[in-house]
Amino acid sequence: MIVLGILTTLFVPASAQNNVIDEVVWVVGDEAILKSDVEQSRIEMQTMGQRMEGDPYCVIPEQLAIQKLFLHQAAIDSVEVTDAAVFQEVEDRINFYIQQIGSKEKMEEYFNKTTPQIRETLFDVIKNQNLIEEVKHNLVKDIKVTPAQVRRFYREQPEDSIPFIPTTYEVQLLSVAPKVSQEEIERVKNELRDYTEQINSGKAQFSTLALLHSQDRLSAQQGGELGFMSRMELVPEFANVAFNLTDPNTVSKIVESEYGFHIIQMVEKRGDRMNVRHILLKPRVSDEELMAALNLADSIMMDVNDGKYTFEQAVTAYSSDKDTRSNYGIMMNAKQDSEYAGTSRFELKDLPSEVAKQVASLNVGEMTKPFIMVNTKGKEVVAVVKLKNQINGHRASMQDDYQQLQDMLVEKRSEEHVNEWIREMQKKTYVRINEEWRNCEFKYPGWIKE
Length: 450
Known about the structure:
By secondary structure, the chain is an alpha+beta fold. The protein is built from 15 helices and twelve strands. The strands form four sheets. The protein has a four-stranded antiparallel beta sheet with strand order 5-8-7-6, with helices on both faces. Strands 2-1-12 form a three-stranded antiparallel beta sheet. Strands 4-10-9 form a three-stranded antiparallel beta sheet. Strand 7 and strand 8 (273-281) form a beta hairpin. The chain is flat, with a radius of gyration of 27 Å.
């Protein structure tokens, strides 16, 4: 974190609402902080199970005041964030709430607001968050450190402050997709044609059929809705059909993608983003087809072990996993919350569970026997995994972990710079705090000017 976390007053669950006699408790510049703002934030944090160090009636108004400093700077600097990006975050947040609470109706009941009202409130909150992050980014974007500074930083760290780097793995994957019979494909297509007929004839609603039958279970819970997405966020075959829909009452033709077969219906279009609902069906793989894929993978591995070709050559020739085939099977870490996102390094917890179980028992250079797993597209495949490299857990060192140490120093310098900026802004900004709200140990004591 560059500075302290952003605390946002969103809305209070209906079950937690109470009557607060409102008053202005802080003034920052020409912006007021109300007692109700503080109380709503406190209840929201309590409802979400967030812990807070210190008195909430000191911590929360200070954080709200800091937000106002950043938003004031955003206005001065004419910082802008695109509405399209905010809209997408709003939809992602709403989808998250629906998933956690159970349904759109339950979400509305929980927050005592309609979905459009929730969307409107979220838009303002998220836009402000993005403006604040953009101001922070502008403050620290030019901070650079030299190798000499990183070495000095490392030498000055107490032993117990040097981060422990967990064991990481580099993994290669060969995947063999079982062949699916044409009869099974036709069965799936006929089922989708039947759903289309039911929808077009008025016998059933698309959302009801999606809830009952779609094998994309996450969207099925929302009647098949995916939320607002851009063309680039969808696989090409799906996007090409979805973005050509213009009539909300029309059901698309059957679309095949790497996930299976779909039918699609337009819900709403906003600029370059569209919300559609879909029904996904995946052809079933028979036991015979799985066994044939296992036998093929076993035969390939026998040839590798006999030296007829390398594992990398086998991946290029036989692997059905397009994400790794062109990279000699090397898996890339796509978990956004991982420290190693975008690299070929994984902690065990970041690997697919079936792969992690296999990797845990391998030595570097060893391969597994063929095993069945569900890939990232939700399909059963036969896989062989090779452990390419393993870096055991250790205290960070200049030799092996320079990048992590460099990141630590940049983050430290960035936090110091932002903290200093806040202190300077305190000196320049008019601040008034009601007498009964002053008896606090603030993180930044300069709010009260004697």
